[in-house]
Amino acid sequence: xxxxxxxxxxxxxxxxxxxxxxxxPISEHNRLYWYRQTLGQGPEFLTYFQNEAQxxxxxxxxxxxxxxxxxxxxxxxxxxxxxxxxxxxxLCASSLETRxxxxxxxxxxxxxx
Amino acid sequence: DAKTTQPTSxxxxxxxxxxxxxxxxxxxxxxxxxWYRQIHSQGPQYIIHGLKNNETNEMASLIITEDRKSSxxxxxxxxxxxxxxxYCIVRDxxxxxxxxxxxxxxxxxxx
Lengths: 113, 111
Fold this sequence. Notes:
Number of helices of chain B: 0
Strand content of chain A: over 45%
Number of helices of chain A: 0
Largest sheet of chain B: 5 strands, mixed
Number of strands of chain A: 11
Strand order of the largest sheet of chain B: 1-9-8-3-4
Number of strands of chain B: 9
Radius of gyration of chain B: 13 Å
Radius of gyration of chain A: 13 Å
Oligomer: heterodimer
Order of helices and strands of chain B: EEEEEEEEE
Strand content of chain B: over 45%
Low-confidence stretches of chain A: none
Helix content of chain A: under 10%
Order of helices and strands of chain A: EEEEEEEEEEE
Structural class of chain B: mainly beta
Structural class of chain A: mainly beta
Largest sheet of chain A: 7 strands, mixed
């Protein structure tokens, strides 16, 4: 069990650029979640996959955000035309079944300058 | 919206038991109580969850009141490494509800 891996750990980008983050869940976990966390706040839910199907998206996920999980394994989160307000920690989590706790990765810290 | 109320912060002396309270007065019969913690610069870490009965694992104990309107997470012998933000969450796991985090309790373990 190597845990949930996120890449990169840190990303600095200029406003208006596109960024893509990757999440590799625990291999047997069929559920994958993306959250965003800003300073002093708890993580906010963004979206959720069961296998390759994206089952729920938060209102926070504007049309500049897109997430994929093409083969039901790793997932990517892309932000187009980044804005300074997108600066946050982006967290990925996975779980095996409904009652189980989530396993979180260490996150990708995005800074938009 | 988070359905729980927690103190903003708490202190506990190293080696003592840390008791973290959580109110969830509107909890429904199908909702479980989950606890996570987040150490600085890391992702949240699952600690424990329960429905009605008290639960214990290698990390902590969870005490749920009989009416299920509140619970307490107990770290039996707190160490400096337990300094973190602790989140209490209620979730209908049978409906596969997503986890909604509040602001949690910032626990400081004092040497």
